[in-house]
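tool_call predict_complex ligand=6-O-phosphoryl inosine monophosphate
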Amino acid sequence: MSKNILLIGTHWGDEGKGKIVDVLADNAIGCVRFQGGHNAGHTLVIDGETTILHLIPSGILHDNVKSIIGNGVVVSLDALLQEIDDLESKNIILDNKLFISELCHLILPSHKNLDIAKEEKLGKSSIGTTGRGIGPSYEDKVARRGIRLIDFRNTKILKDKISNIMDYHNFLLKNYYNQPIVDVEKTFESLVDNYEKIKKFVIDIKPLLLNLTNSSNVLFEGAQGAMLDIDHGTYPYVTSSNTTFAGLLSGTGINVNRINYSLGIMKAYTTRVGNGPFPSELLNEIGDNLANWGGEVGATTGRARRCGWLDIKVLKNSIELNSINGIALTKIDVLDKFEKIKICIDYDMDDNYTARNIKFMEINGWMKSTVGVTKFNNLPKNAQKYVELIESLSERPIDLISTGPSRNDIIEIKDIFV
Ligand code: GDP
Ligand code: IMO
Ligand code: MG
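tool_result ok
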């Protein structure tokens, strides 16, 4: 029987989704992205070599896995070509392995400029976006003036569409944001040139998805995290797509009954990049230690990630939103040197999104290395207790534990494909 699995970040992104997808892709024939764009940064470490993926699904390093970019993803052709070049320079073959939905919306250069101009204008209340043009591209999609890959079939009509949308962008850039405008003619030519280079990957993904999900295991890789969801996250400090289960359905067109398992990917502590509420944040030496020992630097923008204790309240919300069956717990090794470890279990949010009455549980740390451990029984007793405590608080099993960045640093407690 085939098993199709949703993998979703439970908090604010960077939970280690890329690593877990890569591990599980060994047993899969397909790997699908369904929302977001190159705001994502998914890190894979194999035999000491690091690959950071932004748009391309994290199954791409496996020869037998078809990687599909679903219609819900917004695509920058420049970013896509850059990523394709990077992979090809590592001798990764993409022909007949990478497929991109013809219904994907484009991120235009003017979307990027608008993203940056908007943030600048917001000043102190900025979202802290990745500046990749994600929000403005989704805005145009919803406003029904977006450009899709399918539009490249007729360059005459495409040119009109691009002129219209960019006239609007340039009006905003010039008159509202006081910024330089973007050259329409040059943009059009460069888009058409770039499209020629990626045209071979663009298809109607539906038949392929039906075929793959009927035959064997397929992974659906979420980008960002549940709390960055446009509807259910910490609005307005969110991204512009549905990062939760719903995004998988709209971002691929797949029937919900084809999804057999939902795996929440969760770090042993919590991080967030960009602005917005973060109740369990640690603005002290403990937070600094988490950041340093966890290497908490953004894989896309290189920004420092904010760090705090594990937030169980967010996890529970995420479990409900994403119908999570089991959890992959990552970066447990980052807690190796803490004498005491806390878990945030509850708080109230006031109207200003400030957390009040924050409640924590505290356990003793294990003060031993867990790096590279591959069997649950070989974890220090207190680390085992930490895992069991999360299971009992969340009422979900922990199926996998990641004990380091490398593909092999993994404890597979349960075979989720069975
Ligand atoms: P994603 O966006 O969810 O795919 O996560 P990122 O790749 O942005 O961030 C996760 C970071 O943690 C990357 O640098 C990974 O190499 C690293 N990582 C993943 N799992 C582990 C782990 O179990 N232990 C440690 N120490 N690092 C990990
Ligand atoms: P992965 O997939 C962490 C955050 C940004 C900002 C907000 C909106 O690697 O987990 P956007 O550019 O999307 O409009 O920014 O969302 N953000 C992420 N934070 N990991 C990500 O992706 C993110 N993608 C966007 O920092 O706060
Ligand atoms: Mg990331």
